[in-house]
User: Which sequence fits this backbone?
């Protein structure tokens, strides 16, 4: 419970954290505090995917000591789609239960009205400009970029060698062929649970990320262009989704239509898939001491379509709730997690990509994550989801899109009819 500022007396409300001790001194005198209320509590809504929780918790201990506060961690749903619903419920109730929120790169427009302006909490120039710009809504910095994500291809180096392939697939068609050959071979050797390719195929935000990569690689557009043109029923998208639909039962398990990041990782990390599409966090976990694939896999950029290789840009920011009772302390906590040292530690220990240029070009880091610097190029060529251009309606747009793709890949609908319908529905929203 945050009780320190909850009284109604003149010294009980919204005080700057450095004033906390003073407030409690006065609180005792004015009767608006209680004895057990001597330690403010900050609640941080984050996630537990990868090593995120473990690392941030350890770092927070330092903050707690320095600032005389307690930081409590709250874990939201793993699915970005469900997590947004939860945040919206909490914000619409103007709940002060949570102070700091970890927010997805696609949410600044949707959540801005509930978030504090963090300009001044950090130096914007310390971060990659596009990442800062992504979080500026009506001139307010509503989140500080926490880490950057981009879709990557994970592949089994031992199996590529075993089946005579000299490198990861250059194109999606090559991936299909290679996955099929490896899968056949492994099954003949008795592993009936082995699959060629796993990805995020459940009907949620993660499928929007995968599908956008497939269609943009074919030159099929980006759902909605930055000029506001809807690009859903395009040649490239139809071609890309028909190919993905054919993967099911062929190189991907039919159950992939229920997979989010962690389901895909579980299959790959247990040694039962040749290829996986996932975000960077899966690397450190695959390299953990008890991982069956430790030392047996690598990462590459995603394969090319007819046009190019495209990764969807993902990532998260740190935001402070407008309903927090400790906004200043919350800002300090965000700043504390955003320093070069903090981002570097998260990169080394958790494989989380920094949002600050000064964490790149670091030889020690390159030893742990050999592809760290190369990722900068992937980020530069990554495609953003149309969250800026659709603003508060992004979630509806993405929902229509991933539902349509889900019906296509699970064989319930044909690309042409389904995408024509989705295109029209999204056009009605965007207009
Ligand atoms: C990752 C990305 C995020 C994306 C989500 C989809 O967490 O960082 O941007 O929306 O995956 O599942």
Assistant:
């Amino acid at each position: 419970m945050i009780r320190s500022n909850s009284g109604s007396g003149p010294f009980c409300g919204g005080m700057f954290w450095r004033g906390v001790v003073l407030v409690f001194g006065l609180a005792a005198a004015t009767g608006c505090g209680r004895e057990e209320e001597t330690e403010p509590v900050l609640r941080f809504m984050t996630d537990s995917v990868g090593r995120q929780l473990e690392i941030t918790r350890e770092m927070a201990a330092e903050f707690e000591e320095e600032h005389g506060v307690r930081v409590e961690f709250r874990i939201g749903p793993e699915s970005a789609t469900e997590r947004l619903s939860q945040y919206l419920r909490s914000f619409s109730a103007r709940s002060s239960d949570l102070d700091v929120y970890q927010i997805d790169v696609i949410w600044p427009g949707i959540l801005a009205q509930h978030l504090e302006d963090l300009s001044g909490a950090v130096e914007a120039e310390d971060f990659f400009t596009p990442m800062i710009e992504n979080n500026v809504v009506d001139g307010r910095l509503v989140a500080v970029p926490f880490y950057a994500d981009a879709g990557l291809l994970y592949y089994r180096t031992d199996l590529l060698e075993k089946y005579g392939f000299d490198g990861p697939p250059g194109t999606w068609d090559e991936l299909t062929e290679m996955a099929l050959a490896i899968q056949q071979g492994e099954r003949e050797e008795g592993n009936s649970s082995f699959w060629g390719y796993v990805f995020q195929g459940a009907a949620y935000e993660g499928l929007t990320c995968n599908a956008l990569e497939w269609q943009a690689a074919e030159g099929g557009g980006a759902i909605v262009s930055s000029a506001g043109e809807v690009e859903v029923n395009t040649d490239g998208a139809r071609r890309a989704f028909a190919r993905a639909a054919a993967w099911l039962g062929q190189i991907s398990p039919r159950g992939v239509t229920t997979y989010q990041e962690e389901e895909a990782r579980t299959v790959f990390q247990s040694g039962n898939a040749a290829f996986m599409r996932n975000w960077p966090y899966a690397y450190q976990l695959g390299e953990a001491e008890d991982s069956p694939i430790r030392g047996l896999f690598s990462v590459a950029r995603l394969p090319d379509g007819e046009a190019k290789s495209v990764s969807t840009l993902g990532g998260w920011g740190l935001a402070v709730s407008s309903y927090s009772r400790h906004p200043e302390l919350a800002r300090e906590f965000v700043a504390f997690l955003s320093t070069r040292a903090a981002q570097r530690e998260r990169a080394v220990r958790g494989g989380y990509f920094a949002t600050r240029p000064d964490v790149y070009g670091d030889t020690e880091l390159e030893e742990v994550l050999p592809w760290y610097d190369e990722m900068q190029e992937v980020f530069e060529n990554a495609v953003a989801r149309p969250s800026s251009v659709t603003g508060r309606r992004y979630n509806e747009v993405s929902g229509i899109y991933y539902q349509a793709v889900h019906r296509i890949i699970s064989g319930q609908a044909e690309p042409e009819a389904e995408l024509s319908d989705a295109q029209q529905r999204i056009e009605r929203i965007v207009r």
Q: What stands out?
A: Residues 184 and 194 are 9 Å apart (CA to CA).
